[in-house]
Amino acid sequence: MAREKDADGTVRGKPAHHPGTEAKGPTRAVVIVPVLTRQPRGDDDTNRPRLTRSADARHDEAVGLARAINLDPVQTAIVTVNDPRPATLLGSGKVEEFAQIVKDNDAELVIVDHPLTPVQQRNLEKELHAKVLDRTGLILEIFGERARTKEGTLQVELAHLNYQKGRLVRSWTHLERQRGGAGFLGGPGETQIESDRRQLQEKIIKLKHELETVRRTRDLHRAKRKKVPFPVVAIVGYTNAGKSTLFNRLTGADVLAQDMLFATLDPTLRRVRLPHGTPIILSDTVGFISDLPTHLIAAFRATLEEVVEADLVIHLRDISDPDTAAQAEDVERILADLGVDAGDTKRVIEVWNKVDLLDEGNRSRLLADAADGSKGPPIAISAVTGEGIDALKALIETRMAGELEDLTVTIEPAQFGLVDWLYRNGDIVSRTDNEDGSATFSLKATQSAREEIENRLRRKNHG
Questions:
Q1: How many other CB atoms are there within 10 angstroms of residue 254's CB atom?
Q2: What digits encode the pLDDT tens for the residues 264-310?
Q3: Three-class DSSP labels, 47-88
Q4: What is the per-residue pLDDT for 28?
Q5: Which run of H or of E encompasses 379?
Q6: Are 33 and 76 in contact (CB under 8 A)?
Q7: Dihedral angle at the C-alpha atoms of 358, 361, 364, 368, nearest 10 degrees?
Q8: Each residue of 16-49: pLDDT tens digit?
Q9: DSSP per residue over 90-147, as a string?
Q10: Contact status, residue 425 vs residue 445, Cβ threshold 8 Å
């Protein structure tokens, strides 16, 4: 969508032309991206300023979020807000301007890419004569549409209810008091808003019980996996960083991978055997996003426990995105909320995806800058073309099973059942068949595989 800048600095999208649009088409929406001039402060102990994302990047992400649930952004605008109004966030002049835009474009919905208080949302709906969704509400709508598993559906519903509970101040049409008894003798009873709040709270309690049951089931499954000690590797990253594409590349699975925000929501786990035979469980998690609603972080904590419990975390970054540094900071902040230190290089691998979209000069410069950093050089890959995937697999295997070692193993005739295991879990360099019927193998294997070979030979000898 083409954008123009007004004299006051507002960047505006041109209205789209929709010939023959039918009533059953996508909901027409106006997308507003408020840019507050006050620098947001960090939420850590140092109170360092957060990296500021560009207005254009925020605009494109807001439009992408709208299109992710089949909305039609007929007009978009980036609006500088110097003095946020408690009643409407935007100034009265801008509110009037957008009311006219909504009317001219016959829009049914207004997306405000910023958290709104319940009062702000109610006042904007009155002034704009359209339904208003803030960033939190929009993300909740997307999650509600994408949830597939029972757990995901319950989590989204719980987040929705917690979000709605604080917004029961909106203009209800039935706020008259319910009489407490028959005729005129009954007391004033409870207000409808109190009744609604009580019903919401009852639903929340019920959902929490159901989620607790699901969580116990997940704990049982996790405990079973731990009995078969396969390490868990979780892929995390900003939404649209290419997590599902990488997951498919590593596992050969067919998980939905589209150029769409939150294309996948529920976590997917697959067993993978690495090049030297090390088995792992690979987990593809929901994408993170800036200003992820606290309701969602709390509701999805059970799902995100896969990240917390993971032996290794792959932080996947879209290195071709101009805002990759700000996106990485958002991911690291959410990881910190989950108790995962993104700076722990023993547990977290930083992987730069989409290097195929960079020119050679930018690629070399970025890798050189990263090599000078405290985290060490990242792994540069393209999940689409396969570039760098072998190096990533080798690093994962080294972290999970130790460095490769040169081994010499002699298998007695009675132990030949181990030969197939050797070929599957090591790189055989040479094999010598001896006169006594034994065979001597020279191979490269991980430290973990070497320990397993020794244990298997010891059991065979004692058997």
A1: 8
A2: 555 678 889 888 888 898 988 777 888 776 666 766 665 677 788 88
A3: CCECCCCCHHHHHHHHHHHHHHCCEEEEEEEEEEECCCECCC
A4: 94
A5: strand 379-380
A6: yes
A7: -120
A8: 444 444 445 789 999 999 998 875 554 444 455 5
A9: S-HHHHHHHHHHHHHTT-SEEEESS---HHHHHHHHHHHTSEEEEHHHHHHHHHHHH-
A10: yes
Which amino acid, one-letter code, is at 361?
G
What gap in Å lies between CA 200 and CA 204, rounded to an integer? 6
Q: In terms of pLDDT, which residue wins out, 164 or 67?
A: 67
Strand-pairing partners, residue 236, are 315
> Tens of pLDDT along 356-409?
998 888 887 777 766 665 556 788 999 999 999 999 999 999 888 887 788 899
Distance of alpha carbon 244 from its chain centroid, rounded? 11
Question: Residue 401: CA atoms inside 13 Å, Cβ hemisphere, count?
Answer: 28
Dist CA 109 CA 130 (whole Å): 5
Q: How far apart are CA 288 and CA 335, in angstroms?
A: 10
Structure confidence by residue, pLDDT tens digits, 307-361: 888 889 999 999 999 889 999 998 998 888 888 888 888 899 999 999 999 888 8
> In angstroms, rounded to a whole number, what is the distance separating the alpha carbons of residues 249 and 237?
16
Token readout for 325 is 């540094």
Question: DSSP states of 400-441 as a string?
Answer: HH-SEEEEEEEE-GGGGGGHHHHHHHSEEEEEEE-TTS-EEE
Which residues lie below 8 Å from residue 393, measured CB to CB, with a gap of 6+? 250, 274, 275
Please report the pLDDT score of residue 298 as a whole number. 65
CA torsion, points 40, 43, 45, 50, in degrees to nearest 10?
-40
Strands 404-411 and 439-446, by their bridges, are: antiparallel
Sheet with 379-380, strands from edge to edge, namely: 268-273, 279-284, 232-237, 312-318, 348-353, 379-380
3-state class (DSSP) for residue 297: helix
In 205-311, beta strands by DSSP E: 232-237, 268-273, 279-284
> One-letter amino acid identity for 108?
E
